[in-house]
Task: inverse folding
């Protein structure tokens, strides 16, 4: 896995983990990206979750595996989240992706 900065909007700098030709983020990173509480993101993920869109990885200083979510999940949450940050991210993804 490698980390790169993929998105900046002045308030949020998103460093994503890239593996297997996809981008992976943790729930707290998705929450920060869209300016919502992590519980809101959890609810959205639970509504759209598929097993192949989650990867558990051990990271340094963690006593248990951390879940990372694929770009498919990040985009799906972004389209279900109603916030100014989510709208800005959707506009950015439309241009970039």
Result:
């Amino acid at each position: 896995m490698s980390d790169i900065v993929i998105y900046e909007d002045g308030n949020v700098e998103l460093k994503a983990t890239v593996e297997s030709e996809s981008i992976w983020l943790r729930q707290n990173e998705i929450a920060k990206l869209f300016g919502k509480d992590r519980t809101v993101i959890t609810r959205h993920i639970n509504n759209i979750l598929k097993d192949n869109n989650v990867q558990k990885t051990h990271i340094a200083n963690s006593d248990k595996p951390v879940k990372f979510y694929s770009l498919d999940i990040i985009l799906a949450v972004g389209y279900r989240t109603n916030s100014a940050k989510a709208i800005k991210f959707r506009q950015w993804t439309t241009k970039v992706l």
